[in-house]
Amino acid sequence: MIMTEENSPVHSSMTLGAESILLVDDTVILRDRLAMAMRQRGFRVQTAGSYDEAVEVFHHSPTDLAVLDLRMPGKTGLDLLRKLLQMKPDTRVIMLSGFGSIPASIDAVRAGAVNFLSKPADADDILAAFARGDEPTVPTGDVSFPAPSLARNEWEHIHRVLSDCGGNISEAARRLGIHRRSLQRKLRKRAPEDPASPEVIDEDS
After folding, report:
1. Reported pTM
2. 200 found inside a domain
3. Is residue 80 in a domain?
């Protein structure tokens, strides 16, 4: 394990015992930036921007690790997770999402992901999550979670629809059944906080 000046661990292909990694995200800039960082850490990197592209790439060159974006045009990261594990069951997978949803994280882990991380997550965050292995940060099993507020559910739904529309506000407003100006006002607001729980630290307290 490599150590930084701050004495915090930085993982590489050698420390994880993995030579290759697949990065799947429909945002090209983020995907390429992460790919560069992974190559610097010794990985053979494959990239894709959609479910179909990822399946094709993985079919020809399966990898030891995979990092999947949950929300993509077409089939989701969960669909891709299940498909990749059918093709190569020993591939270790991390799921990323810009929508930090507890139900989504539980679904990902139950479907076979090693862990679930909210964006933004850099290469060190992702590799550290792989290194934790069977100690996911996402609680599993019979655990009670506070229900997200209605405002939070609305915020996540709006951003998911907007993502599905490729950022087209007019089309998103049409699908949501609201006026374009109303949608613009909602998009200017910050994400509402979920109800506090013992697992969450309220920074304002």
Report:
1. 0.63
2. no
3. yes
